[in-house]
Amino acid sequence: MTPGKAYLSTEEIRPLAERSDAMGVWLTLHCWGTIALAVALFGFWPNPVTFLIALIVIGSRQLGLAILMHEAAHNALFKSRRLNDVVGEWLCGRPILAELAAYRHYHLTHHRFTQTDKDPDLVLSSKFPTSHASLKRKFSRDLTGRTGSKQLLGQIMRSFQLAGDKEAMESAASDFAQSFKAPQFWKSMPVFIGVMVIMGLIGDWWWGLAFWLLPYLTWFQFVLRVRNIAEHGATEQSENPLQNVRTTMAGPLARLLVAPYWVNYHLEHHMVMHVPCHNLPKMHKALLSKGLGSQMKTAPNYGAALREAGWRSA
Question: What are the residue boundaries of the Fatty acid desaturase domain, all occurrences included (predicted)?
Fold first, then answer.
């Protein structure tokens, strides 16, 4: 049963679950438009500060693309399955070396068995709470590109090993999908490189490396980890849908740099997974109106969520 039906009626859920093609188009254009504006900012005012701003904003929008692919995996980005598949695959997933079909299969298993022994994401959340030193090491590896470089090299090597082995490729799909990675790497790499080439043609030859590959290897990895920690880190390993997942409140800066497209409303998403992301704030208010606020696992901001996961521990 959908967990949300224990707290909200079908009549209350139905309008929240209404999908919109116009909103799907807007969110996709917004994500790519923000990337274009970040590149343009550096193009008009090239200096170290605008370079850093562009890198961080683009890395956050790479996470935005992952979130929109996640929406498409739930058939919530557009009304039709075909539009979800095409846009989710080619405009959201493959530009960040992800693959919609593999991710959908993996992610729906996570929803079915959230924070139980059968949850494929339990290996991520069970590590928390951890120590401040451990989190610091993880964040350092992310921001210096070591995490992204290691994963990218691993994808390349795994693709060579699995070339022509369909059964092994399928068994590997869930391993890669966990972090939005495409098991069929060589089908996504041309799209990833294509984005870099376009950036190079618009500006200098190195723009693709600086404004697509570098954010992918650094800030994207960092915010992906922060998102994972905030969603399920240091939550109950139980079947209680109010405590086995966390919603984190996010202000304008956090939404720009860490939590695009309402991804912070993760408890609400688990309540009814096919509710489009733009309606999750309404679902949050609906749950509060039922008097559930004190029972819901929430954090006032991402700093608080990280502290629960061990950021201030010894």
Answer: 49-288
